[in-house]
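To whoever is on call:

I kicked off a structure prediction for a single chain this morning and the downstream step that reads the tokens threw a length-mismatch warning. I double-checked the sequence; it's 115 residues and nothing unusual in it as far as I can see. Pasting both halves so you can look.
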Amino acid sequence: MSEIEGKEVQKGKILITVEIIEYMPHAVVIKTILKKSSGNISVMSFDAGESLTEKTTPFDTFAQIIEGKAEIVIRGESKMLEAGQFIVIPAHAPSWIRSNGRFKMISAVIKSGYE
């Protein structure tokens, strides 16, 4: 039985976040830890030079770097984050993420409280 089953990680098993996802050349890889109607938690890996295009979501997004460094741009303002640092991207704020070398991050979106 693998540590990642279907769309979520195996419940009740101790895992090391940075180890459940690998880098892929020229790619952004996303693995879901939990996905519920009230939100989701994912871990992502970015190869050097890769990015996510600008997007706006109706919910706050928690983004924590767990390996390497990354640039997160919120409403046109650039923030450089290193491993261990996090930022909350506000709901309805245009944002995008770019790698400055390889990095891994956790992303959590909580959808409740916006009804």
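Update from on-call: the warning came from a stale cache, not from the record. Cleared it. Sanity check on the structure: DSSP finds no helices and nine strands in the chain.
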